Amino acid sequence: xxxxxxxxxxxxxxxxxxxxxxxxxxxxxxxxxxxxxxxxxxxxxxxxxxxxxxxxxxxxxxxxxxxxxxxxxxxxxxxxxxxxxxxxxxxxxxxxxxxxxxxxxxxxxxxxxxxxxxxxxxxxxxxxxxxxxxxxxxxxxxxxxxxxxxxxxxxxxxxxxxxxxxxxxxxxxxxxxxxxxxxxxxxxxxxxxxxxxxxxxxxxxxxxxxxxxxxxxxxxxxxxxxxxxxxxxxxxxxxxxxxxxxxxxxxxxxxxxxxxxxxxxxxxxxxxxxxxxxxxxxxxxxxxxxxxxxxxxxxxxxxxxxxxxxxxxxxxxxxxxxxxxxxxxxxxxxxxxxxxxxxxxxxxxxxxxxxxxxxxxxxxxxxxxxxxxxxxxxxxxxxxxxxxxxxxxxxxxxxxxxxxxxxxxxxxxxxxxxxxxxxxxxxxxxxxxxxxxxxxxxxxxxxxxxxxxxxxxxxxxxxxxxxxxxxxxxxxxxxxxxxxxxxxxxxxxxxxxxxxx
Length: 501
Ligand code: HEM
Known about the structure:
Elements: H1 7-32, H2 43-47, H3 50-57, H4 61-72, E1 75-79, E2 82-85, H5 88-94, E3 102-103, E4 112-114, E5 117-119, H6 128-138, H7 144-169, H8 178-195, H9 201-204, H10 211-225, H11 232-235, H12 239-246, H13 255-270, H14 281-291, H15 298-312, H16 314-329, H17 331-346, H18 360-363, H19 367-379, E6 389-390, E7 396-398, E8 401-403, E9 408-410, H20 413-417, H21 420-423, H22 434-437, H23 440-448, H24 463-480, H25 485-488, H26 496-499
Helix pairs in contact: 3-10, 7-8, 7-24, 8-15, 8-16, 13-15, 14-15, 16-17, 16-19, 16-24
This protein binds protoporphyrin IX containing FE.
Residues 122-123, 135, 307-308, 311-312, 315-316, 319, 382-383, 387, 452-454, 458, 460-462, 465-466 line the site of protoporphyrin IX containing FE (HEM).
């Protein structure tokens, strides 16, 4: 006997009646996920990640997070699976070595794709054993002893930067978009350290191959999408796009990757013997490849080189910009830095070079400059989001609560850096003197809570390189130029994208 049913009608019937309860069930599951409903936070954050995606899209999530912690306390629920911690002790658990935490799905959103294949980097990989292996292979390239060989490359780029600043902007009439100018500087420094070849931003005073803007686009994309990482599988790492790339029908290689590929081809085709040569990061990575050819393949060498620009340019530019920003906003601090510099030249601590260049060794002997830079790092860490980690399956106790496996937890450098119990009751104020006048125990505690370079096994590998850049460019620039806010840092001109990463 035949039964005739009208399928579209039945589907509609089920949809009308089934979808609303299923949707409510989905929201309820989100609300009670891992018993996170006991933690306070914005109402919508309990139900959906859309809330934090919109917040990040608004470009100032760090201010939201500070305000939320001031309102709700040390633990705030930022999403159905996500908790933000402001408790200093939580940083030791979440980023402590061998605690079993892994990076969250936020990170692979920033992973580049080549010919349809994602390229996990030191920064973006979630695989801890791959990470440990890769970090071991390249660690030497970032050691203090290797740094010495990069300093001349930084010097050369810094001198060109100073000369170009003089040529282009020192007439007193031309206004310089300093945040952008510093991006050019940071990219060219990374280019010279990585490949012994600058991209040429400074010389040309233009965004070569649109590198700066395309990187800005990646950050604009990965910030909000990283809050709902599954969207990345639709918008970027979509299997259809991957297939088109594999078939050669589309190519969305980033200009930094194209630049890196050319440099790598030059090296490989020149068949230069790199053994024993003192050289740039690419050479160091190639040497790591020679030492472990099974692991450090040419593709991984290339990925390492590309990730230098991704991880090390914008972050450094933001940090340098914030040092200048706070010095300009606090003229008494600017005056003291300059007095310290002049005195150091007079007493021979700094060599009086015609270019104004200050060496790294020299600038580390300037305590007030050091305090100003540290304070800028504290007030304006380059990373404006919590450094997300996933709780291991067994669960873990954080800040007196048992947090179940799979929960995303993290601390934002912005939130931690404003703790009054660590940094003092004036934690919201730029006050370099805190690094000079606080009792030694407090200074130690403050140092231990600075998260601008992250913490634990995934801490910034390029920290020393960026410190070298910052501790050189700031005093060298101030020795050479008289700067005022009208010239380059009018508060209204500082676009979020440039300064508030
Ligand atoms: C002032 C400048 C810089 C700041 C503020 C900064 C900040 C950070 C932070 C916060 C992390 C940890 C991210 C996390 O745990 O989620 C990180 C990781 C990383 N940074 Fe930096 N960075 C800077 C400069 C650089 C430079 C110059 C390079 C390369 C030459 C670099 C390469 C990396 C890499 C490869 C990682 C991943 C390390 C790992 O997971 O093992 N960074 N950085």
